[in-house]
Design a protein that fits this description.
Blueprint (H helix, E strand, L loop, with lengths): L1 E12 L4 E11 L6 E10 L5 E10 L4 E10 L15 E7 L5 E6 L4 E4 L4 E4 L2 E2 L3 E3 L14 H13 L4 E2 L8 H10 L2 E5 L14 H14 L5 E8 L7 H15 L4 E6 L16 E6 L3 H11 L5 E7 L13 H6 L7 E6 L5 E2 L11 E2 L12 H9 L3 E7 L5 E8 L14 E7 L5 E8 L10 E6 L13 E7 L5 E8 L7 E9 L10 E8 L6 E7 L5 E2 L7 E7 L4 E10 L2 E2 L3 E7 L10 E7 L2 E6 L5 E9 L10 E4 L4 E5 L7 E9 L11 E3 L11 E8 L2 E7 L6 E8 L6 E5 L6 E4 L8 E9 L2 E2 L6 E3 L4
Parallel strand pairs: 11-18, 12-13, 13-14, 14-15, 15-16, 16-17, 17-18
Antiparallel strand pairs: 1-2, 2-5, 3-4, 3-6, 6-7, 8-9, 9-10, 19-20, 21-22, 22-25, 23-24, 23-26, 26-27, 28-29, 29-32, 30-31, 30-33, 33-34, 33-35, 36-37, 37-40, 38-39, 38-41, 41-42, 43-44, 44-47, 45-46, 45-48, 48-49, 48-50
Helix pairs in contact: 1-2, 3-4
Length: 775
């Protein structure tokens, strides 16, 4: 007899603040005779709760059986799961006769939908959450995402303010759901039934099988609040009957969750399958999404509505890609029945679906590109999806300022209570080095509360004793250590960027029409810049390009056989840097500039190069060497793959240098790109995180560090100075640069160090940082 699985069903009594937990243990008897087994379910939690529930079960021969055990939790034992406090319990099943065990985690939380008063409640609190759709796709690993990518995506979603979303059309991996449980994102799990699909029929067995397998596998995850039976299937003739049958089946399999479907037809259909959904999940695109919601509300006035998809259009895959986030969300706000939405989409993704905009085969709907680099739109949506309406700074001087927090209104989007949030500020010098900082724990902030003014102060001395800091970064940080809103005070102009390469050439494949020359400049961004631009001209720098977030810029519409002066300028609110590396470049007729290297990723015995692709690109080539600048005998790898290619067969831990070029479809080669370097990382331990600084205030400390690529977590160690025993904390986040410690002895100085975790193990520790008992 073996344990097949367990299904855990918590029930919360909010009035009494108690809970009941039912655990159904499924057993399989592989013997030809009936067997009786004894076992126990042990419930436990980090708050010290522990309960052992014994059971005895007799299982018929060659069949499955089950047994149910129940527990009641008192008010003192209950810790509710919340998106800002995702507390998890563990249920471990053990067969005492065989020693076999199985373990799952679960959360205590209550979801309520009040269709009469248009309220969506978590643990009794009315919430109006926002989120983003995630396409589980990666240009370097495909749809089989490694854990580091899963964690990076979810961490970035939390930084964007995501608390609820229909994240994906597809069942997510167990690893992804585990991390959603841990980081606090609610989601509707969905079977992959989409559009005008003949499977949207009650007589088709496959969707029923999908539903049963989905619910069976993911039953215990508190992040899953509902099971979606299909997406945009309303035009199919059999959809209404299918949804009625499928929703009924969901309620049989799991009556503790919502049974839902996603509609794009409800605004034009008074007998839409939406009527059968526990929540009105809807999709719409364009400027009039608020008016579309109004129409659906008129058709179905007894439904709370949530936009599982909204958006404008594919925009751009380069980092200057932008959307008017405020206009999109303002069109949805202020409607009591419309309680939230999730944008399509968080990330660009590879596709051959008709209408794909980019020649790189990426569909650029995302706030981050296919390599997860944030676009301009990322920062716009981060502010619009933040839990406060505004974070402004007034009265700024060299050593103090006042932060003004404006709470959301009761019908705003998003809108929910903020508990355990804090302000953190970091003072950096002109070169971006941490000088000092501070933090303050904020009071509970509810939608509709008055504006909160919080004075902050820091020493005006810089890292080198300068009277003025370079920048002061101020962030609103959640209890889970995500910065969901930030702003920067700039007191010094940024230092100049470092220019990598400048080359001039032509843009047309088969011609040299007048003014079709271009100069391409690539550079390493200045550490305290908010954008960059290129100044250029004949003889002097009289013209300039628009500001860009990209680490490159094109100067277009230039004349051939002409020499231009070119320089890069870094910009922030305090002003502009001196022009960097001014130089002369001639625009040649017979030269194509090299493709833009957008991304470099080390891999196991390999590396990937991501690049911009043009319509007439045919072939891409990489030449690589172990000696910088020496390409005399360098091997060349080539591929026709759009957007990205891999160079394999390399040695892990060995640095390589490489350049990239393209071949046009008439076999004309571009110039080689600037030289880049990368070290294949298969089986390699990660580097230690770079600690920016430790902010100490009494018995608390804020650890500020730079996240490490491909990290799956960190280890924090700390101890009172002059002692030998370290306290040890495992930090599960991958890409958050904050960690808050409490419980320190405020009268003692401390030492701190951090290490990085990845698939290969743990890094060495960072250098010790000693902090006194004062701030």
């Amino acid at each position: 007899v073996r344990i097949v699985r367990q299904h855990i069903t918590p029930t919360v009594d909010l009035a009494k603040r108690t809970a009941a937990v039912g655990v159904r243990v499924f057993l399989q008897n592989h013997a030809s005779t009936a067997r009786t087994v004894r076992g126990e379910v042990q419930l436990s939690a980090p708050n010290g709760y522990r309960k052992t529930l014994p059971f005895t079960a007799t299982v018929p021969p060659n069949q499955r059986g089950d047994v149910v055990v129940n527990a009641k939790l008192t008010k003192q034992q209950v810790h509710l799961w919340h998106f800002d406090d995702p507390f998890l319990y563990t249920a471990q099943v053990r067969l005492t006769t065989t020693g076999q065990t199985a373990s799952d985690r679960f959360g205590l939380r209550k979801i309520e939908v009040d269709n009469q008063n248009y309220a969506f409640k978590l643990n009794g609190e009315s919430i109006r959450p926002m989120g983003f759709n995630l396409v589980p796709d990666d240009r370097t690993t495909g749809n089989t995402l490694p854990l580091w990518r899963i964690k990076e995506d979810i961490d970035k979603l939390k930084e964007l303010g995501t608390n609820l979303a229909r994240l994906s059309h597809l069942p997510l991996t167990t690893e992804a759901l585990d991390y959603l449980d841990e980081r606090g994102i609610l989601t509707f799990a969905e079977v992959p039934l989409w559009g005008f699909d003949q499977l949207a029929d009650q007589g088709q067995p496959l969707p029923k099988d999908w539903l049963e397998r989905l619910i069976t596998r993911d039953f215990n995850h508190p992040c899953v609040i509902g099971w979606s039976v299909g997406n945009e299937i309303g035009d199919y003739p059999g959809a209404l009957a299918y949804v009625e049958s499928a929703v009924g089946r969901v309620r049989q399999l799991d009556p503790s969750r919502l049974a839902v479907m996603v509609s794009h037809t409800a605004a034009r259909n008074d007998r839409d399958p939406l009527q059968l959904s526990d929540v009105g999940l809807i999709n719409s695109y364009g400027k009039g999404i608020g008016q579309t919601a109004d129409k659906i509300h008129q058709q179905y006035p007894n439904k709370v509505l949530f936009y599982t998809e909204y958006g404008a259009t594919q925009f751009a895959e380069n980092l200057d890609g932008d959307l008017d986030a405020q206009a999109l969300l303002d069109s949805m706000r202020g409607r009591p029945y419309l309680v939230g939405g999730s944008l399509w989409t968080f990330n660009d993704y590879r596709s051959n679906y008709f209408g794909t905009k980019e020649y790189s085969q990426n569909r650029p709907w995302g706030l981050v590109d296919a390599f997860r680099q944030p676009k301009r739109a990322y920062y716009r949506f981060r502010r619009e999806a933040a839990p406060v309406r505004a974070l402004a700074v007034t009265g700024a001087s060299a050593d103090r300022a006042t932060v003004v927090l404006t709470p959301r209104g009761p019908l705003d989007l998003p809108a929910y209570t903020l508990t355990g949030y804090r302000l953190v500020w970091k003072v950096l010098d002109r070169d971006g080095r941490f000088v000092r900082g501070g933090f303050t724990n904020l009071p509970v902030i509810k939608p509709g509360d008055a504006v909160l003014q919080q004075p902050i102060q820091w020493s005006s001395a810089g890292a080198s004793g300068n009277a003025q800091p370079g920048t002061v970064q101020i962030a609103l940080v959640t209890p889970l250590n995500y910065a969901v809103y930030d702003t920067t005070l700039c007191f010094s102009k940024p230092p100049p960027p470092t220019v990598w390469s400048v080359m001039g050439g032509r843009t047309d494949q088969n011609g040299t029409r007048p003014k079709s020359g271009v100069i391409r400049v690539t550079f390493s961004p200045s550490p305290t810049a908010t954008a960059h631009k290129v100044r250029y001209g004949v003889g002097e720098l009289t013209n300039e390009t628009p500001l860009t977030l990209n680490p490159y810029a094109d100067v277009p519409e230039l004349s051939f056989d002409t020499t231009y002066q070119v320089a890069v300028v870094a910009v922030n609110p305090a002003g502009e840097s001196e022009p960097a590396n001014g130089q002369s470049v001639r625009v040649e007729r017979d030269v194509y500039p090299a493709p833009v290297v957008q991304y470099v990723e080390p891999a196991d015995g390999a590396f990937f190069v991501g690049y911009a692709t043009q319509l007439d690109d045919y072939l891409f080539q990489v030449r690589y060497t172990q000696k910088p600048g020496d390409y005399a005998t360098a091997p060349i790898r080539q591929a026709t793959t759009k957007g990205v290619m891999a160079v394999r067969g390399l040695t892990n831990g060995q640095p390589y240098y490489f350049q990239l070029r393209r071949m046009k479809d008439n076999n004309y080669p571009s110039a080689w790109s600037e030289e880049r370097t990368v070290t294949p990382d298969g089986g390699q331990l990660p580097p230690a995180p770079r600690v920016q600084g430790i902010i100490r205030q009494g018995g608390e400390a804020e650890l500020c560090f730079i996240p490490v690529p491909k990290a799956t977590g960190y280890v924090v160690e700390y101890r009172p100075t002059a002692t030998t025993d370290w306290s040890h904390i495992r930090v599960n986040t991958a890409q958050s640069g904050f960690f808050h410690l409490t419980g320190l002895d405020q009268n003692k100085p401390y030492q701190f160090r951090l290490a990085t975790l990845n698939a290969a193990g743990q890094s060495a520790y960072s250098p010790l940082v000693s902090v006194g008992s004062g701030q």
